[in-house]
């Protein structure tokens, strides 16, 4: 099981922004958080193994408000000790704990490589579990961030994006989620976060039933 020792700051106020960042290994979760926060302690993986093995919390001040990012272990890792089901169960527990602590999330970011030509069975299964965790009105605070646009032809990327909207991400989008593009620049990442600061904080309604 993954380690939930990383926790939201006890001094978090209602005006602070809390964002969970998740997705398959290698989609750029840690790089995204590092580019926004400038935190040099965040490790960026360069192999097929996830460099994030715990739920880490990192802070930054954006548009005059403190933003806390929850970095999560990647799905579809090549190692066996942390299964995707374990990670999703622990994420659900983490989200529920923050709810009981009266700390609601402004967004749950799901990162996806637009360079992936197709989604396998494992990815589809994880998306279903993710949708269950962030179901109901909470889906309005889900932001699907597509990455690695510099690795594909623009036309190819746009075609894949349209297909994702119409198929795999459709249940999320129908529930109020939105999909945005991320380039490699800090300005692009900060723009995504600035838009998220306008979200009304919500609790995920995950149930084990």
């Amino acid at each position: 099981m993954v380690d939930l020792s990383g926790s939201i700051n006890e001094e978090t106020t209602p005006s602070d922004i809390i964002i969970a960042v998740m997705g398959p290994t290698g989609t750029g979760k840690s790089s995204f958080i590092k580019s926004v926060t400038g935190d040099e302690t965040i490790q960026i993986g360069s192999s097929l193994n996830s460099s994030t093995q715990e739920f880490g919390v990192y802070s930054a001040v954006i548009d005059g408000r403190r933003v806390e990012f929850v970095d999560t272990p990647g799905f579809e890792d090549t190692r066996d000790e942390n299964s995707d089901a374990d990670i999703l169960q622990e994420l659900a527990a983490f989200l529920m704990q923050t709810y009981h602590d009266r700390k609601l999330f402004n967004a749950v970011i799901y990162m996806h490589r637009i360079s992936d030509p197709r989604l396998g069975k494992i990815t589809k299964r994880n998306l279903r579990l993710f949708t269950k965790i962030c179901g109901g009105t909470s889906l309005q605070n889900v932001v699907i961030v597509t990455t690695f646009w510099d690795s594909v032809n623009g036309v190819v990327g746009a075609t894949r994006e349209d297909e994702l909207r119409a198929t795999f991400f459709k249940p999320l989008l129908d529930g109020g989620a939105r999909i945005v593009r991320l380039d490699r620049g800090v300005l692009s990442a900060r723009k995504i976060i600035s838009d998220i600061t306008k979200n009304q904080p919500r609790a995920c309604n995950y149930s084990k039933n």
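Confidence is low (pLDDT under 50) at residues 1-6, 46-52. Helices lie at 29-37, 84-100, 121-133, 154-166, 170-174, 186-196.
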